[in-house]
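in:
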């Protein structure tokens, strides 16, 4: 018989697992890893709100995508265009960024799998006499290691020609040059920290769902068990 067991700790672990997976996925897909040098606006470009010249624009560069401005000569204006600069894996600007993409993708796949499984832990707490929480916690720890490897390798690619075109000639491995880090990089770091927190917290979720109070309610014949 399936017993639906919901505790404060298990629900918090489930929500954190889902948030971490989405945060890492969004960061990986974003083009806001590096914010490039400011490019001055042309004299014909004006701000619609103030009527004055537009502020200098700073293009952004991701692992495989970028955002930049393109000119429309007939309209004397520019639009921001975002999309992948690499159509294939081999076109990613640096071998280090290719390795970063592999490690991040592996970590994100594991996190998404755990997030999907975590939803069903309310009904199924063990498989083949092994706690799902413990297994998921182990997988989250492994995913965190993949994410760390990816984030360590990423700055090594700042010396590639693509990064130099955005960050200036002083950019090199682990040196930003004229660039600054975008929100996607910080989101990836925050998600990695939360991944290890989830891995540790999974043990607390397992303890909460197998506590004596839960067992007492199961013995009383309850199918829906909600505990704080």
């Amino acid at each position: 018989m399936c017993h639906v067991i919901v505790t404060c700790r298990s629900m918090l672990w489930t929500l954190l697992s889902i948030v971490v997976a989405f945060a890492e996925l969004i960061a990986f897909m974003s083009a806001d890893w590096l914010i490039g040098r400011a490019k001055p606006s042309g004299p014909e470009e004006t701000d619609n709100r103030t009527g004055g010249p537009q502020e200098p624009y700073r293009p952004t560069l991701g692992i495989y995508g970028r955002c930049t401005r393109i000119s429309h000569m007939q309209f004397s204006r520019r639009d921001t265009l975002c999309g992948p600069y690499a159509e294939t894996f081999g076109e990613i600007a640096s071998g280090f960024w290719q390795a970063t993409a592999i490690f991040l993708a592996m970590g994100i796949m594991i996190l998404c799998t755990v997030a999907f499984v975590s939803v069903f832990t309310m009904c199924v707490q063990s498989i083949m006499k092994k706690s799902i929480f413990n297994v998921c916690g182990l997988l989250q720890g492994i995913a965190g290691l993949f994410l760390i490897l990816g984030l360590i390798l990423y700055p090594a690619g700042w010396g590639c020609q693509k990064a130099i075109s955005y960050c200036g000639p002083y950019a090199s491995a682990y040196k930003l040059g004229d660039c600054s880090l975008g929100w996607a990089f910080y989101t990836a770091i925050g998600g990695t920290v939360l991944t290890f927190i989830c891995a540790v917290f999974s043990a607390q979720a397992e303890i909460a769902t197998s506590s004596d109070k839960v067992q007492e309610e199961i013995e009383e014949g309850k199918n829906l068990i909600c505990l704080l």
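note: The longest helix spans residues 183-209.
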